[in-house]
Design goal:
Strand content: 35-45%
Number of helices: 6
CATH topology of the largest domain: Diaminopimelate Epimerase, Chain A, domain 1
Helix content: 10-25%
Shape: globular
Number of strands: 18
CATH superfamily of the largest domain: Diaminopimelate Epimerase, Chain A, domain 1
């Protein structure tokens, strides 16, 4: 029997497991079963939280020293490095459960340590998302240029201008006139699986409302379309700023809710602010 907590941020829902207590070994197989919306709990994946127990010492090998750690798996069993909506919920979970006593905490992820702060009402969470990475070699993109910023590609029968970067996970940002009329199943999947990406890519289709507001639809690798993506929202704002279509502080409207993204030009760091909510708790037999 496994105790779990279902949480969501902007509709991006995950099953959260305290793996210090549950000690699940095969995280990938467990996630595939639990994430199924017909035969399992149903979610965009599973997030396993650790403080003391390391099933394979991955964070010790990375030499991370954080207050709490997590690993995140997609419904198809593949592992992601980071999740913006997920890390906000991890912070709320850790603070609510008393795993971390301070509202300010350091959370260890496969993309490094993130500084996170839970507000006094324990509803909104601010995350320092760090410095974006654009170098194609570091992103493991097979492309002749060092960066892909507003580069033209043909996908199926449409010409798209793409910007590729990582804020914990690889994202490809595409600006369009109307996100509601995008055939995201067709073009999201096609971009995800372009041959230039060694391990596929997440995709954001972005519509500019004005310089301080954008609207996006998210196609996550290994998942499909989701209601929201925190790292995707962050990537979309910095891509918009670099392409001269947004300000450095911008509201991101997703299907599941709204996030505020701030880019600090002096430090080159990105900050995300948004809600984290508990949905229910239960036991899985």
């Amino acid at each position: 029997m496994v105790s779990f907590t279902k949480m969501q941020g902007c509709g991006n829902d995950y099953v959260y497991i305290n793996n210090d207590e549950e000690k699940i070994i095969d995280l990938s197989d467990f996630t595939k079963k639990v994430s199924n919306r017909n035969f399992g709990i149903g979610s965009d994946g599973c997030i396993f939280i650790f403080k003391e127990y390391f099933e394979d010492d991955i964070f010790k090998d990375m030499n991370l020293d954080a207050d709490i750690y997590f690993r995140i798996f997609n419904p198809d069993g593949t592992e992601a490095n980071m999740c913006g909506n997920g890390i906000r919920c991890v912070a709320k979970y850790a603070y609510d459960k008393g795993l971390v006593k301070d509202r300010k905490m350091k959370i260890g992820t496969k993309s490094g340590i993130k500084d996170v702060e839970v507000d006094k009402e324990c509803k909104n969470v601010k995350v320092n998302m760090g410095v974006p990475i654009f170098n194609t070699d570091k992103l493991e993109i097979n492309y002749p240029k060092d960066v892909i910023v507003n580069e033209r590609f043909f996908v199926e029968d449409i010409e798209y201008y793409m910007t590729c970067l990582s804020v914990g996970n690889l994202h490809t940002v595409i600006f369009v006139d109307d996100v509601d009329n995008i055939d995201i199943q067709k073009y999201g999947k096609a971009v995800e699986n372009m041959k230039i990406f060694k391990d596929r890519t997440n995709v954001e289709f972005v519509q500019i409302i004005d310089r301080e507001n954008i609207k996006i639809r998210v196609w996550e690798r290994g998942v499909g379309e989701t209601l929201a993506c925190g790292t995707g929202a962050t990537a979309s704002v910095i891509a918009g700023y670099l392409n001269g279509v947004t300000e450095n502080i911008c509201n991101v409207n997703l299907k599941g809710g709204k996030l505020e993204i701030r880019y600090n030009e002096l430090t080159n760091e990105l900050c995300m602010i948004g809600k984290a909510e508990m949905v229910f708790e239960g036991k899985l037999y």
